[in-house]
């Protein structure tokens, strides 16, 4: 409105700013006033609260003063009436608070002493004479009787006649104050319970107090109102008048009057006393109140007991230990006193209600009020509580039959849910430990009595409790089970606050160990072990199994692993049913006693299966305990054959096939089969041939045959049952959920292979779980299919992602340094690189590369030489077993000769072996059987010691069966070894050199020796080798083989090859064909060779004396025969300059001589001319045209530039890549065309007879030579069969070098 003056201040803006500032000031003032008002109000409330608290304290102080005055009027001998004592109790309950006034604890103790004494009263006509007058001031308060104004009065002569000494509980019969006295006494008893279970406040009290326990300095002290508050460094209450008062007033005998009192009064007193005791239970509150106190004192007592076992304790600690034990004894006695009155009241209440159902309803309605339930879920769930009980308490426990009653309430479905829901994981574990300890004590006290019923109930309860824990624990660490537990291994995070101390874990584990001890196992299976059972066998099954090569039910039976079908086995079962001959076991379940025994055995087996699942770390101990029970497995197998209406294991077969009314997982007796399988899997590997076959100590041969047939049939039937898209199988735990909708039957191995290729889930599970039922030839074909499929997948994925990875790996190797150059070139090559094509270029001593193109031959020779050098014992990477066995395994001393790169070398050799199997190459090396088992991922144990050292195995067997005093042998748990002249002692266990081998621990000694020899001493070497091998060949590919079968896959069959099979897959070059006279003579000569000569010939042409698995159709490159007509330059073998000696590798011995240096040996030979095999193209015209180099081209056949001798190396090709043959290389400069007319002459000379067939000219012909890299035989056209036989035999047996030509 008014323009601002130039250079002046805007008045409007100033006014607005001033108004805003004033407004903010007023608002600030209001906030300050409001805050001050709030603070004043809070101060007033605090002041009022403090005033009230002060008034309460004044009132309580006044009450304390009145109580003290009233207490001082009491004479030394209690003579006041019961009313005054009731007044003292009521006043004490009004002001008792030890946190405000520690002297209240002394007042409480004094009052308890007073109430425990008797009082003189006047009895008149069944009622008490009231000599007291109620104070008028108490009209507004509860009717509390007032004391006499004049203190005690002297009774006159008439009153003295009716006087008697009565206890304080007689106040419950007072005609006027009975109800008030009952309520007051109940509150007073609860105050005593709170005091007894808490800590001491007043250290100067007249009652007995002990030195504080530092472990529990932070315990909480309950207040009379039920709240708790922290108390600094307080002592545990251990004894006093309060404890004696509680013990007196929870005892029903306290409320029993003498016989001189009228019967009506006695009955009324007992009823009111019992009613008071029952009110103490009040929904189990008593056991909740005393639980904390018992827990604190039992922990302190266990600590003192544990310390006393380790070292001496002080007199003060010994006194404390005794006081703790007495306190627990007193409280435990109170629990049993309450239990007795609870039983009496429950039975009386139930007896008034007609009908059993009403009684059950009454008990069920008050399930948490039961003293047995309270003791079970509140007291027995305290850690190591039973170990804290003295002999008196244990005797009281056994007399009251607490163990049996606790087991009954847990098994009762009406109580079970309440008990399980009220316990945590550790509390459940404590309950199992205490119940087990009570049973152990019961057995010791009642060894001669029959404890079968009690044992069966205990077994059932432990199964219930451990099954309840199962959802919270796991044997392996996962994202859900991440919290470590010293007993259960791993638990859920919700249980992280329930951890155990070291002392608790140690003592608790000692309690639980009794469950898998020999004594308890004998008790659990006593009925089974005492049962007399005949051998279980089936004549029809034995006949079926003993027949090999017979087709039954459409399935061919193979000795190496038959295809088993459910259809054929069902036929066999029916034949057993219809058979009139042979042994048939009578069903034990047809007898009532036998049925009860079956249930008992099933419960015991279910217990041990539950224990193994819950305590995974103790699985081995549990199994060892069971399998070494006398005749346990024998009895268990024969017992299973008696189960069911038909016997002979048919209940399990019917359950597996879905023919029973419930599936396998619902079969009640499946736990028996589970225990048998778990134990037998470990027991059988501890037996030797003498136990199994000669003595037949455990099963007869017919039983073993029937057993193996049943197990094969059972597993196959289980796996063959599948739903359309779902099948849940867990054979490891032997729990299988199956459906009966379909049954898959594989009649032939070929059909099974097709299913495997189609990724049929059932077929894959059968192959993984029980490969032994599949013939070896089928599994070998499946193995090759795995490799073929993996090659195709890699090729497809790499073509899309990394086309550059298709490139082959080129390796340059000097002939004198094959190990060194191979390690440098391939040591760091990845697994994918190993699976690519590896090409090798050899160089001579001057560094020049040898001529030729690598199409597989040089790499094969490189692998031959590399493995031959690596497996040489001189290098000390591998060593051999005894001279008689001569099998390879990693050298235990390789770490000394190769300290830096030893493990890398093992890893490299593992990859090289995997590469050989991946490419289908045979290696002529024999690994020890135990090492093959390691490669397969199997556990190596005593039965494999035979393949390690026959003499050591015999010594261990001698020790195992030694009947004399084992200590006389002077053995300890240690071994003496000499390594490179240095003697050292190896302890098999901690302090083993000082632990003598006895009759009791000799089995452990045998296990330790076997474990060290087979596992520990070559642990690092084996791990490195297996890591390298499995990076090329995954474990699932080879787990389908046994160790012996794996050796066959690696090295081939040690049998004579089939000449006709070799002829069927032979290719011919340079004019030879199948019906050529020289070729016919060759096959005739081979047929006349003996086994040794045949193997020498095969080694001569392929470098391996064993034929490829599955026949020569799997030999790659295929066997070829080339015609060599004259010793031309390219055909002759010239001796070249010798290469320098190979250098030392690492710190080992020198490598074998691989310096034979012939560059032509590794060049790819020309394969022009006729390249057909078998009977194709055998016409005379076609063979004649091939002799002249083909029909319509100008390329003539050339002789090979490579002429080699069969080396003594250890590799041959066996597995042909998918129907792809290498194309003939183009003619290279320097290749020479053989004389075509010479070929024709060789043919006509052999057919028509001529100069070429003369004996003299044949003897002058060159010797046969070979190129093992290409499986090629270079055969001159010998004029006669005899000459060919003589020259060929000389070539394959001379074992010389290239001078043979």
Automatic annotation (TrEMBL):
EC number assigned by the record: 2.3.2.26
Where is the HECT domain positioned along the sequence? Answer: 830-1301
Q: Decide whether keyword Transferase is in the record.
A: yes
A single BP term in Gene Ontology: protein polyubiquitination
UniProt cross-references to Pfam families, sorted A to Z: HECT
Listed A to Z, the keywords are: Transferase, Ubl conjugation pathway
Q: Where is the composition biased (Gly residues)?
A: 1171-1180
Comp. bias (Low complexity)? 134-147, 535-548, 1181-1218
InterPro entries reported for this sequence: E3A/B/C-like, HECT_dom, Hect_E3_ubiquitin_ligase
Q: Per its record, how is this protein called by name?
A: HECT-type E3 ubiquitin transferase
